[in-house]
Amino acid sequence: SSAVAQVILFTCTVFVHARMTQACAGPLWSDLLSADSCKDLNVSARRVLHAFDSWQASASDVTVLVQAVAPALRSADSQRKLLGSLALLAASGSDLPRTALAPLASEPVYMGLSAVLSNPGSPVVAATAIRAVCAISACTATNDKQWRPHRVIGQSRTVLEAYPRSSVVQEAFVVGCCSILSVDHPGLGSHGQELWNVLWPLAVHPREEVSEAVALCLSRLTWFAKPVGPSGESRGDSPSPRAEEAMVKACESFLRLFDLIKRPEDEVPLMAHLQCTRLVRLLGHFARSGQSTVALPGRKAVDTESATVVLPISRLTAVIDQVVDTLCELEAHAPLKKGLSDLFDEIVRFAAVLVSVAGSALLPHVLRVRRWLWRVLDAPMSLHVAHSGAWGEFLLAILQAAPSILLQRTLVERLLTHLLASMRSGDAVSSSAAVADAPKKKGKRKRTEALGDVVAPSAREEPAGSVSVAEAGRTCALFTTSC
After folding, report:
1. Is residue 91 part of a domain?
2. Which tens digits make up the pLDDT trace of 149-163?
3. Does the keyword Signal apply (predicted)?
4. Is residue 179 part of a domain?
């Protein structure tokens, strides 16, 4: 009996030691991803995500995770597929060094995710698998076993085509492409043009998060364009368009859509205003982030660290011309509606970006820029009140990048007069809002004091650094006299 007791005691000791070793090594992934744990998806997903909060793993612990994930990905249960993909996505986003994450790029994981992508069962499972496969490809970019990005993007594209109306899958595909393109050398090879063709229609996506991510991807793809020849001819084998080619294409697409907006309201296609706004914002991304690989005579290529942007200024200013002329004319008859108002705000902000990026290169087009200023100054005051933020960005960009554009006395006088009127209009609007928000009290004297504080703000002590309308007027008078 004593021998049996010793055997039982030894067995218990070994079992407790094994459980303690597992607890120190990390969570029990085989239990978290088992078929029994997947019955309640909400609870199981929270348990998997919480397991990474205190996860301090090494390469061996990542290998344990991979061994538990592989069967879950090959399972016929869609919930197990989802949990397995979710665990891989969370692991790829952990703070572990890339050397520790190398087991994630193993062949069993790739085969499992490929099986999920070939038969996801639902858009949510497909989206999670896309995010996981792209994230692992990005975080193991320096590994010899890195999954080729063009294979990953090709599989993700197939899923995207299988769910053409799923915003979840579209967003996952775009975010996954951002992950792959975020590394220094994505390894797309000659497949950049294919990716460009897939991403381009999504640039006008109704969801802002998707369209912004697409703009980042397209801007990044312009960095992989091959250098043009000394005479400026394009390379037919370039994996992606150059930045100026992308801007010309965006301008052409915008002008086609904008012609539709000019029609009567009942003939304007649905979402045309939003798509125009998205294209203008895309132009801003290309101007700020796009790179043109221009090969000068005697130079075969450009430095990878350089960021030369060749702006098609004539095309860009023509787009701004059309929008400013049309919308200012419409504003003269009636206030702009929501879609057109957003488009006007975006085109003014893009004009500010163009001035900031082009700088003195915009001086040959100074008459055009001044014409924009005059058109906006001739518009009703309501246009300035509604778009004061964008208008201010445009003026500040001119003052910082090309102040000589404002060296015209009549323009400066009109501009400063208009700004003073806008300040007074803003004070009146603020006073009206403050009166509406003032507490209503029964005492006549207290109510009079409250109204006095709102109606006569000049009687109060102004904060340090504030400028009154009268003081601004005196400064403007001195400025115009010196012009």
Report:
1. yes
2. 778 888 899 999 999
3. yes
4. yes
